[in-house]
Amino acid sequence: xAEILKNDWFYEYFTGNAKFGIKIKDHFIDTRSEFQxxxxxxxxxxxxxxxxxxxxxxxxxxxFIYHEMLVHLPMAVNADAKNVLIIGGGDGGxxxxxxxxxxxxxxxxxxxxxxxxxxxxxxxxxxASKLGDPRxxxxxxxxxxxxxxxxxxxxxxLIDSTDPVGVGEGLFSQAFYEDCAxxxxxxxxxxxxxxxxxYEGDAVEMERAHKxxxxxxxxxxxxxxxxxxxASGHWLFGFASQDRDPLVFDAAAWNALGLHTDYYNTELHxxxxxxxxYVLRRLGKAREx
Amino acid sequence: xAEILKNDWFYEYFTGNAKFGIKIKDHFIDTRSEFQxxxxxxxxxxxxxxxxxxxxxxxxxxxFIYHEMLVHLPMAVNADAKNVLIIGGGDGGxxxxxxxxxxxxxxxxxxxxxxxxxxxxxxxxxxASKLGDPRxxxxxxxxxxxxxxxxxxxxxxLIDSTDPVGVGEGLFSQAFYEDCAxxxxxxxxxxxxxxxxxYEGDAVEMERAHKxxxxxxxxxxxxxxxxxxxASGHWLFGFASQDRDPLVFDAAAWNALGLHTDYYNTELHxxxxxxxxYVLRRLGKAREx
Lengths: 289, 289
Hints:
Two copies of one chain form a homodimer. Chain A is globular. By secondary structure, chain A is an alpha/beta fold. In chain A, α2 links the parallel β7 (83-88) and β8 (106-110). In chain A, α7 crosses α10. A seven-stranded mixed β-sheet of chain A has the order 9-8-7-10-11-13-12, with helices on both faces. Chain A has two domains: 2-59, Spermidine Synthase, Chain: A, domain 2 (Roll), CATH 2.30.140.10; 63-288, Vaccinia Virus protein VP39 (Rossmann fold, 3-Layer(aba) Sandwich), CATH 3.40.50.150. Chain A contains ten helices and 13 strands. Helix content of chain A is 32%, strand content 32%. Chains A and B meet through β2, β3, α9 and α10 of A and β2, β3, α9 and α10 of B.
């Protein structure tokens, strides 16, 4: 939920009783696609940002954190990844980071909402500018149907989805995760948007996702990062695989690639899997349910 | 800065252009001490919380994160700590965690503002209830003068201060850090509130503190934690010492103490020193200045 108060503050409600406000310069897109409400804003603190159904998807100022942690961590583990599938990711940020790897040969990006991609291409070139890379195939269709019908194998699958409400809901289902598992090549890795441990509503979704993932993937880990414009600032990705331990990777090889990053590094790669006790306990209980 | 809008939302401004809102049940203390504005609230999402000069100091819901990271990490490194000095910490949360260690024999707590302690004792027993522990000596005086004049040696010094404005400003000065260094016993450790790397105003203070600490202490490290009600949710403590590496500690011994914690654990202890690149770069530049 969002509201514009006095026409100059955007609010995202983290819960009914906590909210985050951004002073806006301009609310320049206020529209609705076939799937969701879409709004684009310009702001003083975060540059441009956009929301889907009132929830902040990204801001120019802090999207680097999310996209670096989404892409570079699994790429450091599965360094030979050639064929990549992205579900969601309409802003193009995941693609932007992926195409920096010469070894990546092909990226299928499956985004249900073409309007998100079109608007990001026009108004958020910071994230969307690499969507035209010749290695990228855009598929404007339902990710659930795509993975159900796909036969190709992928070395890396990124679930860059919204929260599990509305259009994103099916991307948190057990059937969807099972299809993703079937599409993973040997040694393949899946990373998914895994919600947040702090506010109760988010934490319940974190538990649900972890329970389902744990029943599908033998390796199922969670890692954290500091994301200032997401609820509580404490956000998680899931790392799932048949056989890859996320902490077994060649840090020197990744560093030899010479990729400049502003958040990710190979020390932080190891550190980000060390979760607080209250998060570990909720994840543990989720697995037992 | 804070404002109550329509008498039901408390706002803390992270910057002039970003703010955090908490729906309040009650604003039951609205006063001013000799040193600062003091307000106590009750809220739906965070329980009771209090602010100094409009900035959230703690909420009942997430103070465990701050206090566990402030106390247990250095206690795991300097497990034999007997004599402890706390500068600030009027809410009692640091004392509450410290008195769980039987080996801690004496705690000098130096809080400039007696009214904060009195109000926390009355309205925040969750943090303040151990201030009466017989090992605790409360000193209601200026921490700067206290460390300048003190002759005793401490195994652990905790700088549990407000931000470096107003009453907290001198607790970020080079002279203050030099006095603390002089008071540290061999093998002693100092941990200080080290601001946040994200918003520019906070990050500048982080740099200043790190530059000063680095010029005083041979060992000067920074560790991070997720603090939902502080600006950006990304907060830091500094770890300073003449000779102790914070990553050289006996995890098994700490775990054998059997202390229940909701945030801190010995894996996270290692992980929390792995900082994002943008933070490392700012700290590195600060040291070179």
